[in-house]
Structure formats: structure tokens, C-alpha cells
User: Fold these one by one.
Assistant:
Number 1:
Amino acid sequence: MIIRRAVLVAALIAGILTGSPAAAADPGCSPPTPSTTRPGYLVADPDCALDGTPFTALPGARAHTGIRDGAAYRIEVPDRWNGQLVVYAHGYRGTGTTVYVSDPDLRAHYIAKGYAWAASSYATNGYDVGQGVRDTHALIGIFQQVTGKRARNVYISGASMGGHVTAVAVEEYPRSFTGAMPYCGVLGDTELFDYFLDANVTAAALADVDIEFPAQPDAGFPVRWAQQVGQIRTALTGTDAGRTWSDVLERRSGGERPGFPAAFAYWNAASQGGLPFLFSVYPGLTGGTAGIAPGNLTDNRRTLYRATDGRRLTAAEWRLNAEVLRVRRTAYPDPGLAGVPRVDGRPPVPVLSLHGIGDLFVPFSMEQEYARRAAANGRAGLFVSRAVRDVTHCGFTSDELKRGFDDLITWTRTGRRPAGDAILDRRTVAAPGFGCRFTSQTRPQWAPCPA
């Protein structure tokens, strides 16, 4: 089974990002209750899934649910508990005002292996990583209060924005966790917004379309932007300029690597709000703040855009860098839990991460950014990254996730660092077989890996 693989991109973006339950609740489910901490927010019943299905413990386990400080939680403990706990951090759920808790992808695996798990809805939606960190860390205390048991080891895992939560949590609470497994995570904090900026300003420059970056967009900006996107798409579709944009985006999202043409086509076919996906997340629509930072977080004044890997820039690259719109930041990632929290790259415990090399929602370059920061801080030995040949966002098989988790556990028990990919070696990343080592199932966009 491939996690989230069957979800269409439209559902991924329009459904996951709405942040509101889509299905009518089962008659046995309670309606959402008003939040006690966030005016205007509702907290969905943690005893029911979004489709109204009651949440019940797996065979051989016991479940606990509740609402604490405006956040719903779920806890599941196997009868033969091994004394260890995994807390799970969910991803971005848009800006809806209903929060809800969901199960981790590896729920059944945790229980089968004797691990208890706990998950929170968080008290807010939006890109509120700080709230995600606080509510996920609070699960450790809630677990002890609800079960009357203290976990001797606590692991944290999170997907997408939950990966950002995971990376910040282990730095903010270094004594609370034994190990961490983010996947498809925003490990480069505000580098994600820079990537969205770069994708759009380079497309506009190559299409010879003048665009703007309003820190405070006026009411007419979305219409103007949609018109400009139409002009950009016309200029880039099936043209040399469009192929150059693909080359630029490939290098900006992680470097030359196998399967990128399929990934580029896949994400250009995705849409959100009537726009192709990459153009729908142009930071100028929000000032680059994600609705939470105190100003524009993006900056490309010193960014050098490349479409090739030669020692010197080509004439076309010189022209692109001269013509591209340059943007100056007015805010920075927060050193604490306000705004968009900074990831320092100082893991105090082993971190094993997985990322799809064709993911252009949260690009593979997030892994590379974290690896560089960890290396600069002398923590390279505490980070292992595994590349998976997939074009979707968080489209891992259960076997890929299980292997990652089991290897993380072995690492923390024995001290022996598990295998990973040399994601900072350009030639390794560009090799035809890159991503094969930790890919358990061939996706349609790739030929089978060599035996």
C-alpha cells in the first residue's frame, strides 16, 4: 500500500488544505464543540473519524481520547506495551476553524511492535508550527495523566508541516525525545517560501511577463495575478523558455535527478483555486507570511538561478538573473515558537527522514538544507536522509515508512547509524539509480530500479 497515493492532487490540495471535516458525522458522534482557548474555533469529536466512523482501539490495544486546552487528542496503548511512546505531528490543514485529530500512518505497526502512540489536533489550523510543537509535546504529559504510566522513551514523527514541527520540537525540548522521524517534511523552514517565490519569479522572467510582489495585496491583485499566470503559461507551454524553466526548477528543488520531467508534468497538472499549483502558492498572495509571520519571509536578492551545472553561467542564465524580480524580506524565522519557527539544524537525538525526490509541493531541497545546517553545526552524524522515487507529496509505501521507523529504533538502541543517501553529492543525486535503495515499490513515473 502507498500512503496517500490514491489521493488525487486536487484532493490533496483542496481537501487536506481546507481544514474542515467533509463528511456528515455518524449519529453516534458528537458535534464539534467550541474551543476553550481559541474564540471562533471548533474542536471535532476525537472519538470519530472525519467520515463519521467511530474511532476504536485495534485488537490487543486500548484507546483514550479527549480534549485538552482546545486540542483534541487520541492515545492508543497495546496490551503488551513495551514502555515506549510515539507522538505524531500532522501536516498543514488550511485555515479552516475546525480542528481534528487523526491517526498516524504507522498506527498498526506501532501497536504490533508494542509501541503506544498519541496524536493531537493542535488548537489551531494554518501554518502554526509553534502551536503544533506545544500541543505535540503536551501529549507526553497527557499520556502519563491518562494512562497512569510514564514512557521510558519518547519518539516523535511528523509529515509535511508535521516534519517542521518535529524538527523544531527536538531542538526546543532536547531532553524529551529519544529519536525523530520526519517525512516529506519542511525541514528548511522558510526556505519553502523562498522556493515558491523562485518558481514564480523565474517563470515570469522567462515568459517576459512583468509581475509584482505586494506585501499587502489589494483586492484586485488575485485577478491581476490570474491574468498574468495565463500569459506566463502561454509563453512557457511547449517552448524553449518552458524547458529552461523546468531546468531552473529542477536545480532549485534539489538538483538534477532521475524522474524530474514526470514530476514537473505531474505538479503542473495539479491546480488549486483555478491556478496551476505552483502559481497558486506565490508568496505575493500573502506577502510570504503564511498568515502568521510578522512580515515577508522571502528573499531572493542574492539567489543565483541556474539552468545548467557548468562552472560558468551561460548567456541565458546571465539574462535570467538580470531580469528576474528581486524581493527583500522584512521578517525572519523565529528563534522560538512564534511566527514561523526557525530550524537550526542542531538535532540532539538521531533523526531519520524520508523524502520523495519528485515532490514539488515540499521539495527534496528541504532535506538538503537540513543536511547542510546539521553539518555546519557538527551534527551530520545525527541525520540520515532517505530518498524515495515518488512524485506525490508524502506518497510513501507502508514498507518504506516501517523500514525507516524500525531502523531509527535500532539506531537509538545500538548507536549504529543506519544507511542513508548522500543527498549533498550532486553526482550521486543525478545518477540514474538515485532513490532506488530505499524505494520498495516502483511508481508509474519510473522504470524499475536495477536489480
Note: The CA atoms of residues 101 and 121 lie 4 Å apart.
Number 2:
Amino acid sequence: MNKKIAGIAGTALVAVAVTFFIFKSQNNEVADPEFFDELPEASIEEPVEPQFKFGIPLDLYEVEEGKIKRNQTFADILLPFNLSHQDIYSIDRISKDVHSARNLVVGKPYSIFYTNDSIKTASYFVYEPNNTEYVIYQLSDSLAVYKETREIEVVEKTMAGLITVSLDHSIREQGGSAALVNAVADLYGWQIDMKTLFKGDWFKVVYEEKLVDGKSVGIGNIIGAEFNHRNNDYKAYAFDKGDGLNYFDELGMSNQKAFLRYPVEFSRISSRYNPNRFHPVLKRRTPHLGTDFAAGRGTPIKAAGDGIITERGYTKGNGNYVKIKHNSTYTTGYLHMSKFSNLKKGQRVKKGDVIGYVGKTGLATGYHLCFRFWKRGQQVDFLAEDLPSETHLKEDQMIKFETVVQLTDKKLNDIVAPWAESGITASNE
């Protein structure tokens, strides 16, 4: 007996029982309560919730998942699923304005939704270029391509760490990401040299983490931080005074200079400004009027400050290089890039924008950025310059800022220091 028939039979039994009960009641007879205990329960079929992936109903299709292989094309993947060469050509043409079917990156995941009545026939191809977006190529009915963005949940998190090896080690040890390491390093770039931290220095940070389906896909803003270096306390508070989020100390003074201290993320200074350096390629003494930051090939290079790209090109000595004019006083140069970003000559950039990637083009023996710094037209030692600070808060902004300080201080004070629980002594304790 199937569920539908069983349900009808059960309903009929209940109706008979109710009729019997009424008949007995009308004849002043009390129904036996055990009678109802013996009645079979009516079978009620629960509705099945439809399952979806990328908004596509799974009960209509079979799914094959994979990752893009080296030299694999859109056609290689979908020709076995009964997609014609004409359809592939059409998808290639209409996808250019959304996400070209030719721009499939090795290692990125994809899903094929197909029917399998007599032959496998693809209905949808879904490509995931990153953690927050996916591209749907509709292959049945009418051809179409559209991009969707996953819902991102932003949660506030905290962390405290004791320096035993490096900032990177302390943050990674607690499950933090490279992005968080770089954010903290950039935040304190002008106050603390992250290459010369002391064992026993410590930090606390309140920050935002971005989640998609419960998995981390990056960090958002730092809300507040405290860094104790050589028994000196440095605090930073996020505050928007009307031109975007910036960071200030408890007195409302900017934590940041007008220029980044390290235009290459968490790199190592391999050669300093030296008017009498022996050139490793030319084999003669020639001035080195820049600062070299050693880093792996392809490491992002950031604009040191706001400005306009005045030069972007290649020379035999500089290799691929970019020059940025920041104002009438300061100009910066970035040499030996492996490649440029998509920023062009004449375009305005903000401090921290990626302008290229570390390489060894031109006269260079290893992967590094040669960073040049001009002051009123003369190249100077960037690390020796007393550079201008960002603006401080005005008096009418301080009332609101002081409220932010109080709230952030409470969050920082509530963070439990792991070294306190383990009995390890920090530098100021």
C-alpha cells in the first residue's frame, strides 16, 4: 500500500471512530478511551523542501564539479556535454561584457548542471572566479551569461598576541590571515618598525572579518588596536571625519604619515640609499639613490601616497617602472616591476593602490622593488626624511571621536591576553 492510499484509509478510520463516539454519547454510553489508543495513526506525507545551488534546482539536474586545468578551455569542458561549436562561439561572444569564457583561471572551481535522459546535455555552466562571485553561463533554452554576488556577512572579531618571533608568526599562530598581518603592519608602519620588534612586545586588535556561507573570505576594517613596543603603548582608533575611514591616536592625531613606509607588503630592505655604492651588475661604483625592498616575484607594489601617474614604461636600467607625482614637493618612483596593474599614465591613484608587481626587469640581479623618492626635484633618502603627518581632528570632531575612543577602549580591555593565561610575561608586565 503506498503512502497516499494509507493516508486515505487512516482518514476513513478516524471518521468511523468519531461517528461511533457520537453514537455512543447520544445513547448515554461513555466511549472506551482505550479505543482511540488502538486506532492506527493517519500517515501524513511531509512536503520535501527543494534544494538549490547557485539558484538552480538540484532535483532537475545532475551535477559534475571540477577545477580548471592548465590549457583547458571552455570548449574542452563542454563539448562532451552535447554543446555545439556554434553555441560555444555564441557564448564566447556574449560573455565578453560579463566574464569572458576565455578568462578561465587554472585551479578555479566550476560546476556543470546537465540532464542525462539519453545523452549528457549541459544546461548551465557555473564558474567561480573568487570566493564572493560566481558566473552562470545558461546553455539551454536561450543562451545568457550573468554574474552573481554571494551574500557577505561581516562579523566583528578580536585577537591578542605576544611577539615571540615576529608579527606574522604571532597572528598566524592564532589562525589569522596574511591580510590581517599586513593590515596591522600598515596601521603602525610609521610608528613601529615591524622588522625590529622585541620579544615580549604585544598587541590587541578589534577587526572585521568577511564570511560567505560561514567561511572567511577576507577582512574588512580594523576597528581599533593597541600595540605595546618596548614598553611604549601605541593606540589606533578608526574614525570617519567625512572623507572615509582613517586612524587616530587617543588625542586625535593621525597614526599615519602622508606616505606608506613600506610600498611592498611585509618586505625586507635589502639595500639602502647610498651615494657611493658598488653596482652589482655594472661592476663599478655608482650612486644608489633609492631604497631596495626585497620580495618574491609578483608581490603587489602599492602607491606610497595619493597622486597622479606621470610616467609608466620601460627603460634598460629601470625595467618596467612607474612614477607618481604627489604634489609640488614630493614624487616617487617604482622600478624593476615584473608587470603593471591596469592603472594608466595620467590616472589618479590613492595611497595603497596596487600599481604593479615585484620583478627583476632592467639592471637587477634579484626580485626586488627599487623605490625612489624626490623632494623638490632632488632624490633623497626616503627613510631619513621627516615626512608630513596626515591631518589631525578638529575641535568640533573631537566630541564624537571621544565617544568612539571610549567604546573601542572597552572592546580592547575586554580582550583576554593569552600570555596572561599561560603565565608568560609580556614586556610591560
Note: The longest strand covers residues 215-229.
